[in-house]
Write a structure and sequence with these properties.
The protein has 11 helices and 17 strands. By secondary structure, the protein is of the alpha/beta class. It folds into 2 domains: 141 residues, no CATH class; 165 residues, Rossmann fold, CATH 3.40.50.
């Protein structure tokens, strides 16, 4: 089977004709969970921390948006979760097509548009997102959460991209059986708007954590420090092991280096931790997924790339969020151990 849609969309792009949004081509849409409004709680941080910030992560919003988030006190609207039904849709090389609408779920793996369609699926449901296809944390906190919706609507579909080292282990323990697709035609395809941090998304995220913790013995303990090292985008905390060792010695923390651990070891280490500490980044999601209500996340922030993206999760899940901003040092940044401990003391016990 073949489809000319990729070529037609390339011609339209060269002609500077913008594609339609896929939701505009849906034959039916419905509300899965209602939206809601909540008041942001204030984050926990020492005086003058925000004055150290020299750059803001675009993934987490603008400087103004993130400042408002950590300062708290303002109402925030959480969008409803919705499903949308498409007929006669295609997923080819990471791009969803339906007539003159399209959505890129990941960058194409070929320079030129592919036209061959390898399989046909009667009814599928796409649960992956562009962010989840690029970042492990967004895969675990967004795509895996939407998987439950997809599996209830049809064959749960994701792109056929290379998976990370921990992906198979998490899929096994979370009972996920995705259909990885390079190219397919769908007679019916369900897509989702599932970006609102509403109560239903909270419940689905908590279900993932409960599934993981059911595999290991859980005993509450003070906290886990998650090592980032030099993985991912460069955020080198030059005294990372010094801080980790001090928290282990002074406060009974465990230390986890996810790169050196499989999923069972990661879950066993994180389950029961009341606080998750580490350099802001994807690695923290290992601990956050298992963090109980009332727990806390303390992020160690590089001054040039501040991100409060996890505060959306802690606000939603009745947890606490804190941060310490470092000082530039060489090719990385350094954080004062005393500031880390004083910030931990601010957190509710």
């Amino acid at each position: 089977m073949w489809s000319t849609l990729p070529i037609r969309h390339l011609v339209r792009r060269l002609a500077r004709i913008a594609p339609l949004d896929l939701k505009d081509r849906a034959t039916r849409s419905w509300e899965i969970a209602p939206g809601e409004i909540s008041i942001r709680p204030k984050a926990y941080f020492l005086p003058n921390q925000l004055e150290r910030v020299t750059g803001w992560s675009r993934l987490a919003g603008t400087r103004v948006e993130q400042t408002r988030s950590v300062c708290g006190g303002e109402p925030v609207e959480h969008a409803a979760t919705r499903g949308l039904l498409l007929h006669d849709a295609f997923l080819i090389d990471g791009v969803l097509y339906q007539e003159d609408a399209c959505s890129h779920l990941q960058p194409r793996s070929h320079r030129w548009p592919q036209t061959r369609v390898e399989r046909e699926i009667e009814r599928g449901a796409v649960y992956c997102t562009p962010g989840g296809n690029r970042y492990f944390a967004q895969w675990l906190m967004d795509d895996c959460v939407t998987y439950a919706l997809a599996s209830a609507e049809g064959i749960p579909v994701t792109t056929n991209q290379a998976v990370g080292a921990h992906t198979p282990g998490y899929e096994e323990w979370l009972d996920m059986h995705p259909c990885r697709v390079q190219s397919a035609h769908f007679r019916e395809l369900v897509i989702f708007e599932d970006f609102g941090q509403n109560r239903d998304k909270h419940a689905r995220f908590r279900t993932l954590g409960e599934k993981l913790s059911s595999h290991v013995p859980v005993q509450p303990y003070p906290g886990v420090f998650i090592i980032r090292g030099q993985t991912g985008q460069s955020r080198l905390l030059t005294n990372e092991w010094e801080i980790a060792g001090r928290l282990r010695e002074n406060r009974g923390f465990r230390i986890l280096d996810p790169i050196k651990a499989d999923v069972p070891s990661v879950v066993e280490c994180c389950a029961g931790a009341r606080v998750v500490v580490g350099v802001e980044g994807s690695g923290l999601i290992h601990g956050i997924l298992l963090l109980p209500p009332g727990g806390a996340v303390l992020t160690l922030q590089p001054p040039g790339q501040f991100s409060a993206i996890y505060k959306d999760l802690t606000d939603r899940d009745h947890q606490h969020f804190g941060f310490v901003v470092g000082h530039p040092e060489g090719q990385g940044f350094r954080i004062d151990c005393g500031e880390v401990e004083r910030t931990l003391d601010l957190l509710p016990s």
